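Tutorial, part two.
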Amino acid sequence: MTGRPVPAATGAEGNLFLKALIFPALLVALWAGLDGLGWTNDRLFASPADVIVTLAEDTASGALPGAALASLARALGGWAIGATAGLIFGVALGTLGLLRAVFDPTVVGLRQIALFAWIPLLSAWLGNGESMKITLIALGAFFPMALAAQAACQTIPQGWREVGLVLDLTRAEQLRTIVLPAALPGILAGVELSLNVAWLGTFGAEYLIGTGYINGAGDGIGAYLSAAREYLRMDRVLLGVLVLGLIGVSLDRLIVHLSRKVAPWQRP
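Running the prediction step on this input gives:
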Protein backbone atom coordinates (compact mmCIF):
# COMPACT_ATOMS: atom_id res chain seq x y z
CA MET A 1 0.00 0.00 0.00
CA THR A 2 1.34 3.44 -0.95
CA GLY A 3 -0.79 5.52 1.38
CA ARG A 4 -3.12 5.42 4.29
CA PRO A 5 -6.75 5.00 3.20
CA VAL A 6 -9.25 7.58 4.34
CA PRO A 7 -12.18 5.97 6.15
CA ALA A 8 -15.38 6.13 4.15
CA ALA A 9 -17.23 7.39 7.20
CA THR A 10 -15.19 10.60 7.19
CA GLY A 11 -16.58 11.76 3.86
CA ALA A 12 -20.08 10.61 4.81
CA GLU A 13 -19.97 12.55 8.08
CA GLY A 14 -18.78 15.63 6.22
CA ASN A 15 -21.69 15.38 3.79
CA LEU A 16 -24.16 14.92 6.62
CA PHE A 17 -22.76 17.99 8.37
CA LEU A 18 -23.13 20.11 5.25
CA LYS A 19 -26.69 18.87 4.71
CA ALA A 20 -27.51 19.65 8.33
CA LEU A 21 -26.51 23.27 7.72
CA ILE A 22 -29.00 23.73 4.88
CA PHE A 23 -32.12 24.25 6.99
CA PRO A 24 -30.51 26.65 9.52
CA ALA A 25 -29.08 28.64 6.60
CA LEU A 26 -32.53 28.87 5.03
CA LEU A 27 -34.00 30.06 8.33
CA VAL A 28 -31.36 32.77 8.64
CA ALA A 29 -31.96 33.84 5.04
CA LEU A 30 -35.71 34.00 5.69
CA TRP A 31 -35.10 35.97 8.87
CA ALA A 32 -32.87 38.46 7.05
CA GLY A 33 -35.30 38.71 4.14
CA LEU A 34 -38.32 39.45 6.33
CA ASP A 35 -36.34 42.02 8.27
CA GLY A 36 -35.16 43.66 5.05
CA LEU A 37 -38.73 43.95 3.83
CA GLY A 38 -39.77 45.55 7.12
CA TRP A 39 -42.18 42.75 7.97
CA THR A 40 -40.81 42.20 11.48
CA ASN A 41 -41.48 44.15 14.67
CA ASP A 42 -38.18 45.41 16.08
CA ARG A 43 -39.61 45.38 19.61
CA LEU A 44 -40.40 41.69 19.33
CA PHE A 45 -37.84 40.37 16.88
CA ALA A 46 -34.35 41.83 16.46
CA SER A 47 -32.63 41.91 13.10
CA PRO A 48 -29.68 39.62 12.27
CA ALA A 49 -27.43 42.68 12.18
CA ASP A 50 -28.45 43.66 15.71
CA VAL A 51 -27.78 40.15 16.98
CA ILE A 52 -24.33 40.13 15.36
CA VAL A 53 -23.47 43.50 16.91
CA THR A 54 -24.64 42.30 20.34
CA LEU A 55 -22.64 39.10 19.89
CA ALA A 56 -19.50 41.13 19.30
CA GLU A 57 -20.18 43.46 22.22
CA ASP A 58 -21.07 40.80 24.77
CA THR A 59 -18.21 38.58 23.67
CA ALA A 60 -15.70 41.43 23.98
CA SER A 61 -17.02 42.32 27.45
CA GLY A 62 -16.86 38.68 28.53
CA ALA A 63 -20.53 38.64 29.47
CA LEU A 64 -21.62 36.01 26.97
CA PRO A 65 -18.61 33.66 27.30
CA GLY A 66 -18.86 33.94 31.09
CA ALA A 67 -22.55 33.06 31.06
CA ALA A 68 -21.99 30.17 28.64
CA LEU A 69 -19.11 28.73 30.67
CA ALA A 70 -21.07 29.06 33.91
CA SER A 71 -23.99 27.13 32.39
CA LEU A 72 -21.72 24.50 30.88
CA ALA A 73 -19.86 23.90 34.15
CA ARG A 74 -23.12 23.70 36.08
CA ALA A 75 -24.66 21.31 33.54
CA LEU A 76 -21.67 18.96 33.43
CA GLY A 77 -21.32 18.94 37.21
CA GLY A 78 -24.96 18.12 37.82
CA TRP A 79 -25.01 15.62 34.99
CA ALA A 80 -21.94 13.78 36.28
CA ILE A 81 -23.54 13.37 39.70
CA GLY A 82 -26.97 12.36 38.43
CA ALA A 83 -25.79 10.09 35.61
CA THR A 84 -23.31 8.25 37.84
CA ALA A 85 -25.97 7.64 40.49
CA GLY A 86 -28.46 6.65 37.81
CA LEU A 87 -26.03 4.22 36.20
CA ILE A 88 -25.30 2.44 39.48
CA PHE A 89 -28.95 2.32 40.48
CA GLY A 90 -30.13 1.25 37.03
CA VAL A 91 -27.60 -1.59 36.79
CA ALA A 92 -28.64 -2.74 40.27
CA LEU A 93 -32.31 -2.74 39.27
CA GLY A 94 -31.55 -4.54 36.03
CA THR A 95 -29.55 -7.31 37.64
CA LEU A 96 -31.17 -7.83 41.06
CA GLY A 97 -34.74 -9.06 40.84
CA LEU A 98 -35.60 -8.39 44.50
CA LEU A 99 -34.35 -4.81 44.30
CA ARG A 100 -36.34 -4.30 41.09
CA ALA A 101 -39.52 -5.61 42.67
CA VAL A 102 -39.16 -3.19 45.60
CA PHE A 103 -38.09 -0.01 43.81
CA ASP A 104 -39.22 -0.26 40.19
CA PRO A 105 -42.85 0.91 40.65
CA THR A 106 -41.70 3.89 42.72
CA VAL A 107 -39.02 4.89 40.22
CA VAL A 108 -41.47 4.70 37.33
CA GLY A 109 -43.94 6.85 39.25
CA LEU A 110 -41.36 9.48 40.17
CA ARG A 111 -40.19 9.57 36.57
CA GLN A 112 -43.62 10.86 35.53
CA ILE A 113 -43.16 14.06 37.55
CA ALA A 114 -42.01 16.89 35.32
CA LEU A 115 -38.51 18.08 36.18
CA PHE A 116 -39.48 21.66 36.91
CA ALA A 117 -42.28 20.51 39.23
CA TRP A 118 -39.53 19.65 41.72
CA ILE A 119 -38.44 23.30 41.99
CA PRO A 120 -40.81 24.37 44.82
CA LEU A 121 -39.87 21.39 46.97
CA LEU A 122 -36.13 21.68 46.33
CA SER A 123 -36.26 25.43 46.93
CA ALA A 124 -37.90 24.85 50.32
CA TRP A 125 -35.24 22.32 51.25
CA LEU A 126 -32.11 23.85 49.72
CA GLY A 127 -32.92 27.48 49.03
CA ASN A 128 -32.23 29.05 45.64
CA GLY A 129 -28.45 28.77 45.62
CA GLU A 130 -26.02 26.65 43.67
CA SER A 131 -26.75 23.44 45.58
CA MET A 132 -30.40 23.63 44.57
CA LYS A 133 -29.54 24.10 40.88
CA ILE A 134 -27.04 21.25 40.86
CA THR A 135 -29.56 18.99 42.61
CA LEU A 136 -32.24 19.81 40.05
CA ILE A 137 -29.87 19.11 37.16
CA ALA A 138 -28.67 15.87 38.77
CA LEU A 139 -32.27 14.79 39.30
CA GLY A 140 -33.01 15.41 35.64
CA ALA A 141 -30.04 13.28 34.59
CA PHE A 142 -30.71 10.51 37.09
CA PHE A 143 -33.96 9.08 35.77
CA PRO A 144 -33.15 8.66 32.06
CA MET A 145 -29.78 7.15 32.94
CA ALA A 146 -31.28 4.78 35.50
CA LEU A 147 -34.10 3.62 33.24
CA ALA A 148 -31.77 3.16 30.25
CA ALA A 149 -29.25 1.15 32.29
CA GLN A 150 -32.00 -0.98 33.80
CA ALA A 151 -33.55 -1.73 30.42
CA ALA A 152 -30.16 -2.50 28.88
CA CYS A 153 -29.31 -4.98 31.63
CA GLN A 154 -32.72 -6.66 31.56
CA THR A 155 -32.66 -7.26 27.80
CA ILE A 156 -29.39 -9.22 27.80
CA PRO A 157 -30.07 -12.65 26.23
CA GLN A 158 -30.49 -15.39 28.78
CA GLY A 159 -27.92 -17.51 26.95
CA TRP A 160 -25.23 -14.97 27.76
CA ARG A 161 -26.07 -15.19 31.44
CA GLU A 162 -25.93 -18.97 31.29
CA VAL A 163 -22.38 -18.74 29.97
CA GLY A 164 -21.41 -17.06 33.22
CA LEU A 165 -23.00 -19.89 35.19
CA VAL A 166 -21.19 -22.51 33.11
CA LEU A 167 -17.88 -20.75 33.68
CA ASP A 168 -18.69 -20.52 37.40
CA LEU A 169 -18.16 -16.77 37.43
CA THR A 170 -18.92 -14.77 40.55
CA ARG A 171 -21.64 -12.12 40.40
CA ALA A 172 -18.99 -9.39 40.18
CA GLU A 173 -17.19 -11.22 37.37
CA GLN A 174 -20.43 -11.72 35.45
CA LEU A 175 -21.19 -8.02 35.82
CA ARG A 176 -17.76 -6.99 34.58
CA THR A 177 -17.29 -9.48 31.73
CA ILE A 178 -20.84 -10.16 30.50
CA VAL A 179 -23.51 -7.77 31.75
CA LEU A 180 -21.84 -4.39 31.32
CA PRO A 181 -20.28 -5.09 27.88
CA ALA A 182 -23.59 -6.44 26.60
CA ALA A 183 -25.53 -3.51 28.05
CA LEU A 184 -23.07 -0.89 26.81
CA PRO A 185 -25.09 0.32 23.76
CA GLY A 186 -28.17 0.91 25.90
CA ILE A 187 -26.11 2.59 28.60
CA LEU A 188 -24.55 4.93 26.03
CA ALA A 189 -28.04 5.86 24.82
CA GLY A 190 -28.86 6.72 28.42
CA VAL A 191 -25.73 8.86 28.65
CA GLU A 192 -26.82 10.85 25.61
CA LEU A 193 -30.39 11.31 26.82
CA SER A 194 -29.39 12.19 30.37
CA LEU A 195 -26.98 14.86 29.14
CA ASN A 196 -29.70 16.39 26.98
CA VAL A 197 -32.09 16.51 29.94
CA ALA A 198 -29.34 17.94 32.17
CA TRP A 199 -28.74 20.76 29.70
CA LEU A 200 -32.45 21.57 29.59
CA GLY A 201 -32.57 21.43 33.37
CA THR A 202 -29.63 23.83 33.56
CA PHE A 203 -31.46 26.44 31.56
CA GLY A 204 -34.62 25.99 33.59
CA ALA A 205 -32.78 26.26 36.90
CA GLU A 206 -30.97 29.42 35.82
CA TYR A 207 -33.97 31.05 34.20
CA LEU A 208 -36.49 30.34 36.95
CA ILE A 209 -34.29 30.70 40.02
CA GLY A 210 -31.24 32.56 38.74
CA THR A 211 -29.59 35.13 40.97
CA GLY A 212 -29.69 37.70 38.22
CA TYR A 213 -27.44 39.27 35.65
CA ILE A 214 -25.81 42.49 36.80
CA ASN A 215 -23.10 44.55 35.12
CA GLY A 216 -21.96 41.70 32.90
CA ALA A 217 -21.53 39.23 35.79
CA GLY A 218 -24.07 36.57 34.89
CA ASP A 219 -25.30 33.40 36.46
CA GLY A 220 -25.48 31.41 33.26
CA ILE A 221 -27.32 31.64 29.97
CA GLY A 222 -30.67 31.26 31.71
CA ALA A 223 -30.08 34.37 33.81
CA TYR A 224 -28.73 36.15 30.72
CA LEU A 225 -32.01 35.42 28.94
CA SER A 226 -34.10 36.36 31.95
CA ALA A 227 -32.44 39.77 32.20
CA ALA A 228 -32.77 40.29 28.44
CA ARG A 229 -36.49 39.60 28.66
CA GLU A 230 -36.93 42.02 31.57
CA TYR A 231 -35.27 44.84 29.63
CA LEU A 232 -36.87 43.87 26.29
CA ARG A 233 -33.45 43.26 24.73
CA MET A 234 -34.69 40.99 21.96
CA ASP A 235 -31.23 40.94 20.41
CA ARG A 236 -29.92 39.29 23.58
CA VAL A 237 -32.93 37.00 23.81
CA LEU A 238 -32.31 35.67 20.31
CA LEU A 239 -28.57 35.49 20.92
CA GLY A 240 -29.08 33.54 24.15
CA VAL A 241 -31.42 31.10 22.43
CA LEU A 242 -28.89 30.55 19.64
CA VAL A 243 -26.09 29.94 22.14
CA LEU A 244 -28.26 27.48 24.08
CA GLY A 245 -28.98 25.57 20.90
CA LEU A 246 -25.37 25.53 19.72
CA ILE A 247 -24.05 24.27 23.05
CA GLY A 248 -26.78 21.65 23.25
CA VAL A 249 -26.03 20.37 19.76
CA SER A 250 -22.30 20.36 20.46
CA LEU A 251 -22.76 18.30 23.62
CA ASP A 252 -25.00 15.85 21.79
CA ARG A 253 -22.55 15.45 18.90
CA LEU A 254 -19.69 14.95 21.35
CA ILE A 255 -21.50 12.11 23.10
CA VAL A 256 -22.40 10.53 19.75
CA HIS A 257 -18.75 10.74 18.66
CA LEU A 258 -17.54 9.17 21.91
CA SER A 259 -20.19 6.46 21.61
CA ARG A 260 -18.85 5.52 18.19
CA LYS A 261 -15.36 5.24 19.64
CA VAL A 262 -16.43 3.17 22.66
CA ALA A 263 -19.00 0.98 20.84
CA PRO A 264 -18.37 1.27 17.07
CA TRP A 265 -20.93 -1.44 16.35
CA GLN A 266 -23.74 0.61 17.88
CA ARG A 267 -24.08 3.33 15.23
CA PRO A 268 -23.56 3.40 11.46
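Residues 1-8, 212-217 have pLDDT under 50 and may be disordered. In part three we will examine how such features are distributed along the chain.
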